[in-house]
């Protein structure tokens, strides 16, 4: 049996490979693909894998675009941090829809389901599966924020956020282009509203998004120093000493 992983987050891809190997070391895992472009080229030029594990948000768009360019009729297990695409996912030969962070049990159940039906695979009842999944899903996090820009307020999607920073009782939302916006939240109120797979509170003043962390360095006194993509700060971005162990677990895709 061979599996193709389509995932643009290195940590998430490595976690999937580890869980697959734990489930069955005999499964062959093909090289991970990170984009729609790579995936379309691979699927057009080589035999299709028996099973695909596919993230929905890729570096160059939604993975559903792959199905528009390739006649792919292999079962797919979707892995995503968002629950908004369940119905669309089950229209594309999906046999399961797993919210990140993917657990060993969820992935094992999905692969077992594939093996059970692989000898006579038929597309499932998409709408009823998606509806049931929506009912059973309990992980609901904010997917957008209302931020102040002068006298105006604008919506900013969670996936476009680089970090939140507290400064003199004011909390700023900083987007991935480095723009700063005031929001009416404290960091304490923000934490339970944010998806813990992507967001982590590194110290008492800052929460960061995983996708903007470029480099992690050792720092004085047991702390870690983070370098963020396209984000310039007037001070070092540090993971506090008491948060370092939790940060390492989080960075590896584990639940805290």
Overview of the molecule:
- By secondary structure, this protein is an alpha/beta fold.
- The chain folds into 2 domains: 135 residues, Response regulator (Rossmann fold); 108 residues, OB fold (Dihydrolipoamide Acetyltransferase, E2P) (Beta Barrel), CATH 2.40.50.1020.
- Helices cover 28% and strands 30% of the residues.
- The strands form 5 sheets. It has a 5-stranded parallel beta sheet with strand order 2-1-3-6-7, with helices on one face. Strands 12-11-10-14-13 form a 5-stranded antiparallel beta sheet. The chain has a 3-stranded antiparallel beta sheet with strand order 15-16-17, with no helix packed on it.
- The radius of gyration is 20 Å and the shape is globular.
- The model has no long low-confidence stretch (mean pLDDT 87).
Q: Can you lay out the helices and strands and say which pair or pack?
A:
Elements lengths: L1 E5 L3 H14 L4 E2 L6 H10 L5 E4 L2 E2 L2 E2 L1 H6 L6 E5 L5 H4 L4 E6 L4 H14 L8 H11 L7 E6 L2 E6 L3 E7 L2 E6 L4 E4 L3 H4 L8 E5 L2 E4 L3 E6 L5 E5 L8 E3 L4 H8 L5
Parallel strand pairs: 1-2, 1-3, 3-6, 6-7
Antiparallel strand pairs: 4-5, 8-9, 10-11, 10-14, 11-12, 13-14, 15-16, 16-17
Question: Outline of this structure?
Answer:
By secondary structure, this protein is α/β, with parallel strands linked by helices.
Taken as a percent bin, the fraction of beta residues is 25-35%
CATH class of the largest domain: Alpha Beta
Structural class label = alpha/beta
Give a quick account of the main beta sheet: strands, pairing sense, barrel closure: 5 strands, parallel
Mean pLDDT across the residues is 87
Shape: globular
């Amino acid at each position: 049996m061979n599996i193709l992983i389509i995932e643009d987050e290195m940590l998430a891809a490595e976690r999937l490979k580890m869980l697959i190997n734990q489930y069955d070391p005999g499964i062959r895992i093909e090289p991970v693909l990170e984009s729609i472009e790579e995936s379309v080229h691979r699927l057009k030029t080589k035999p299709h894998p028996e099973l695909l594990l596919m993230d929905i948000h890729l570096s160059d768009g939604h993975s559903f675009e792959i199905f528009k360019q390739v006649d792919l009729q292999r079962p797919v297990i979707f892995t995503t941090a968002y629950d908004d695409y369940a119905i669309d996912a089950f229209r594309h030969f999906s046999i399961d829809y797993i919210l990140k962070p993917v657990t060993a049990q969820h992935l094992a159940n999905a692969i077992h389901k594939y093996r059970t039906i692989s000898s006579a695979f038929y597309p499932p009842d998409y709408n009823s599966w998606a509806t049931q999944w929506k009912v059973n899903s309990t992980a609901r996090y904010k997917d957008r924020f209302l931020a102040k820009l002068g006298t105006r307020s604008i919506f900013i999607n969670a996936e476009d956020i680089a970090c939140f920073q507290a400064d003199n009782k004011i909390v700023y939302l900083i987007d991935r282009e480095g723009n700063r916006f005031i929001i009416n939240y404290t960091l304490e109120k923000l934490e339970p509203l944010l998806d813990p797979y992507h967001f982590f509170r590194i110290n008492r003043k800052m929460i960061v998004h995983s996708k903007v962390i470029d480099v992690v360095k050792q720092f004085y006194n047991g702390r870690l120093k983070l370098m963020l993509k396209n984000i310039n700060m007037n001070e070092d971005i540090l993971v506090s000493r008491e948060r370092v162990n939790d940060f390492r677990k989080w960075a590896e895709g584990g639940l805290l």
